[in-house]
Amino acid sequence: YYCQSLRLHILHDQACRIRNRSSKQKHLYLSSYIPCKSLSIEYWKEHNLNGFNNQQKKAITNEKTRDIGITILCDDDGKFQISHWPPLPIEDSVAILDILERPTFTMEEILSRTIYARCQRRFEELKETILSTTSANIEIDPLIPALKCELLPDSTSEEALFISISPFSGLYKVTSYMETRYSQQIEYALNRDQGTLIDAINLFKIWLIQQRIPSLLAHLNCHIYTRIPSLNPKHELISPFVNNGIYIELIHHEGYYI
Known about the structure:
α6 packs antiparallel against α7. The protein is elongated. β5 and β6 (146-150) form a beta hairpin. The protein has helices spanning 2-19, 45-49, 54-63, 90-100, 107-131, 181-192, 197-216, and strands at residues 29-34, 38-42, 69-74, 80-85, 137-141, 146-150, 161-165, 172-176, 222-225, 247-250. The chain is an alpha+beta fold. The strands form 3 sheets. The chain has a 4-stranded antiparallel sheet with strand order 1-2-3-4, with helices on one face. A 4-stranded antiparallel sheet has the order 5-6-7-8. A two-stranded antiparallel sheet has the order 9-10. Residues 59-66 and 231-242 have low confidence and may be disordered. It has 3 domains: 2-118, Copper Amine Oxidase, Chain A, domain 1 (2-Layer Sandwich); 133-209; 217-253, no CATH class.
């Protein structure tokens, strides 16, 4: 029992060092430490506080509300137990508990495995959310880790959308090799307003389709526009009637658009 209590103290000391290592660890919070008994750690504080104004964030922080974290307990038999809030699936909890049963382990190992498991669960939930409203080929890449979204049939690697999660803050990061405007909208929706997520994804899909049209119609004698051109000599483009349109002008029928 004394040895386990000492190991719990070492874990607490390691957690403090991780917390003070760099500014990236500001989202890690040591909420409770009872010598010989328990150690509680919260993580992803910025992710937890999204959607609240500054005054609400301050109140929540002062109240030390626990949203996402772990508690390591040293029971009367001198054995470690670990609980997660919110709970993780059994297979993840067992895998993390196995770390505590090794002869040697570190707090960094526990946190890394815990956050990895939490990311996987969030990827699965996000995958279900996207597939519930739009057709897509979505897979979880466990090596990055990231959610790879192919929103169009036969998507190329450049057309794929990659959604990752910062292990420090828990915030989503969206990457596209082809553009940044719509991927930034999707990232904002994921982190700030998920009610607009599907609209942001659909706009990105429409943009991808617009990029495919020129090559698909290259064999036709036509001009392709995403905005109706004006009639001035410079043939400048005016403001679009809609943001999700493709206009095809046949060469032999100028001024007529499909």
